Amino acid sequence: MRDGTAHRRRARLTGALLSALALLTAATGCAGPAESAVSAKKAPASASAGADRVEPLTDPAKPRLPVTVGSSGGERVTIESADRIVPLSGSLSEIVFTLGLGERVVARDITATFAQAAELPVVTRNHDVSAESVLSLRPDLVLAETTTGPDEAMEQIRAAGVPVLVVDPAQGLDDVGPRIRAVADALGVPADGKRLTERSQDRIAAVRAAVPDREEHPRVAFLYVRGSASVYLIGGKGSGATSLLEAAGAIDAGAESGLTKDFTTITAEALAKAAPDAILVMSKGLESVGGIDGLVAIPGVAQTPAGMARRVVSIEDGVLLNYGPRTDEVLKSIVGQLYADAG
């Protein structure tokens, strides 16, 4: 999904959400089966000029290869060259570009929405990898997550002799460092991996230290909404948002209310039990339902404290749940919007 999370990508997304994403893709015109899988796509219009960018390390190191590294599942992968890299998730693309190796990236999937990747060809259809499209670009390294698929496409890439490094999906803030280091090690720049990890962790820590100290923590419900596909879901345990909300000094209202699934269809009863003081949404989702007016028109939302106060936190789809080099920016935006009345 172009949602960040977009979701589109991760083990925490349940079957219900994955089905929703299929509907979303059809409804919003993302690359579909009738379109060429290798196509130049611009960054989404909602990405503000100059803001939706990664910040590469200064004086990045040159890869020292070959290396042999561990891949998810225990497999060992030997990487001889990293001149033509294909990262198959937005989060992995961010890491490569932030390590200063973006000029080596030859393709992206639709979840890489930041400006530096905007002109790269897309090698996915409805979030599924096109092996033919990937192989046509002659990559010498493919970066993937355990949820990247379909399996047949990934096996076809491996069968062609292309090394594939598989990284575990991110679930929270604790995954930022390990994912950065896994990619950096595979690219032969382990020192820069440590440097970027330290930079990311220091920036996250600085944001957390600036969170207003309040006796009562705001309850925030993460809603995944797509009006164009009639998809309305509330995040529960494992949605991916809990770690961010807790770092922002908030309570994940869906998880705390007892929602055990990653995502559950929104009902008035579920919202009443969650009783959120604020609602977290992806920016494209908010746009798809007609803004705050449309959001509070969803049954049950207007009756919550968040709905009555029209208190909404909106974060760009392509970065919200990436848990990577820009997570400090995500957290800072959540904090800024959530405590806008602090003072």
Defining key terms:
3-stranded parallel beta sheet, single chain, alpha/beta, disordered N terminus, 343 residues, 6-stranded mixed beta sheet, 15 strands
Characterization of the model:
- With 343 residues, the protein is an alpha/beta fold.
- Helix content is 34%, strand content 16%.
- It contains 13 helices and 15 strands.
- A hairpin with a 4-residue loop joins strand 10 and strand 11.
- Helix 5 packs antiparallel against helix 6 and helix 6 packs parallel to helix 13.
- It is globular, with a radius of gyration of 20 Å.
- The number of distinct β-strands equals 15
**What distance lies between the first and last C-alpha atoms, to the nearest angstrom?**
37 Å
Number of helices: 13
Q: Residue share in helices?
A: 25-40%
**Rounded average pLDDT:** 87
Give me the Rg, rounded.
Answer: 20 Å
Instruction: Tell me the strand percentage band.
Output: 15-25%
H/E element order:
HEEEEHEEEHEHEHHEEHEHEHEHHHEH
Give a nutshell description of this structure.
By secondary structure, this protein is an alpha/beta fold. Helix content is 34%, strand content 16%.
